[in-house]
Amino acid sequence: MRDPPTARLAAWRGLPSYGHLCAFVRGFSEGASIIRSLECEPREVDNVAAMPNNQRITSLLGTGLQVAWGSHAFWKYRGLMYGAVFLGGIAAIAFAGVLWQMFGFGPAALLTALGAGTLILLVKNGVVDLAELMAVETEHVLLLAELAAHRETPTGHEQIVWVRTRAAMAGAPPGWIRRRMRGAMTAIHGTMQDVGEAFPAFRNGRAPSWARWLLARCKNPMADVLAGRAFAEGTGHTSYRAKEGLLLYAAAWPEVFRLNVTLGAVGHAFALATAAVLTFPMALAGTSSPFPVLASLAAIALWSGFGVKRVFLDPILEGAAIIAFEERVRGISVAPKTEAMLMEASAAFRELDERVRDESSLG
Q: Do residues 74 and 159 make contact, with C-beta atoms less than 8 angstroms apart?
């Protein structure tokens, strides 16, 4: 019988990069077993938990990649949906750069702000409907949750139809659930709990209030994971599943919050690194260009970095987050006071609870 991966990693402690590679390969292999088998292997989960934190994150990313790969048909569909937004953003940045070059910074900033404000008003008043765009992420996590739970799903174009049908038949729209999850998570981070418990450097008095405020608003990828998880299983009790997920998240504090922030930091680091890589050739190509052109190129590079993250890395982070969340909350019990505290702290959770009651009364 082969030595477990952790034993092989221990023999190479002097080479962290090798350990990270082994953890990633191990996570990728575990993801393959998740899709191919219907059995859980507690020994493997325990081994991952015993790894140093950085290698555990690497292993989770490998697992997330394999789970996300099982959804590659819907992954492509998601990429196409966000591709239109990505190209529209590049066009808007380029247009702002042209205005800056022609009329100066002040008029260009004013016209850009007016355009952005108009778009926000159109979205808020329902003239421009972004429901499809907002729903595609939740629908993708629905599929990732099904794959992570070993349930059989279609492939190819049928996968897209199946996911969209499942979401349409649910008891609540994906966008509605997603907004309530994000609102309730903000209350958990900022009112029910203290972010300093998860990150001692951010304890009250040790970190500026604005830094604590920003940390409390780190909701992704876990907010989208909890929203997508609510649509899994196909029971139709979407609001109940969403409420259950929030209670489990609150009960598993602060471990799941630390994981959420870590995965979010990985995503932002990837986006900034991608932007830096793209900035270099753009800067070389525009060395003799005016400053407005260079600024526009830098903005396009930054926008592209986060666009690449949104399309290519976020599904991997969501796959890793759903695996880690289910491992952490398996067998966990929620204290009765948790629901009462969340009801008091979050209007979004109260709206969710009211919808659960309405669905129960309708049978």
A: yes
CB 278 within 8 A of CB 64: no
Residue 216, both tokens: 């409390």
Tell me how far apart the alpha carbons of residues 256 and 258 are, in angstroms, rounded to a whole number: 5
Using a 10 angstrom Cβ sphere, with 0-12 exposed, 13-18 middle and 19 or more buried, the burial of residue 251 is middle
pTM: 0.80
d(CA 143, CA 319): 10
The pLDDT mean for the chain works out to: 80
Comparing C-alpha atoms, which of 98, 121, 162, 43 is closest to residue 295? 98
Strand pairing partners for 207? 204
* Longest alpha-carbon distance in the chain: 72
Structure tokens at 349: 């959770």
Distance, CA of 352 to CA of 1 (rounded, Å): 50
Residue type, 54: N
CA distance 220 to 225: 8
Q: Report the C-alpha dihedral over residues 16, 17, 22, 27, rounded to 10 degrees.
A: 100
pLDDT digits (tens, 9 = 90+) for 37-96: 433 333 344 444 444 466 778 888 888 898 889 888 999 999 988 888 899 889 988 888
Per the DSSP assignment, residues forming a β-bridge with 204 are 207
Distance CA 168, CA 272 (A): 35
∠ CA 138-140-146, nearest 5°, is 105
Tokens of 232: 């899994």
